[in-house]
Q: What sequence folds into this?
């Protein structure tokens, strides 16, 4: 799942699994930065950039994160 489309909970889980020794403070900082980048897609002035993403439904199941809500 592209980072710009991840909910905070999903991003936290993905980052936590990928970086198991990361400190809670750094994890929250990374999640916060990802959420801040998502705000670019919601802006109205100037017009937001367009994001195109092709995703495979099975990707969530393979990652073990299928139960986490997506965007």
A:
């Amino acid at each position: 799942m592209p980072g710009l489309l991840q909910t905070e909970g999903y991003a936290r889980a993905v980052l936590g699994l990928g970086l198991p020794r990361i400190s809670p403070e750094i994890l929250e900082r990374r999640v916060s930065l990802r959420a801040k980048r998502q705000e670019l897609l919601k802006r109205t002035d100037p017009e937001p950039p367009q994001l195109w993403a092709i995703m495979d439904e099975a990707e969530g199941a393979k990652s073990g994160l299928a139960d986490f809500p997506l965007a």
Summary: The CA atoms of residues 8 and 35 lie 7 Å apart. The mean pLDDT is 83. The chain has one domain: 3-63.
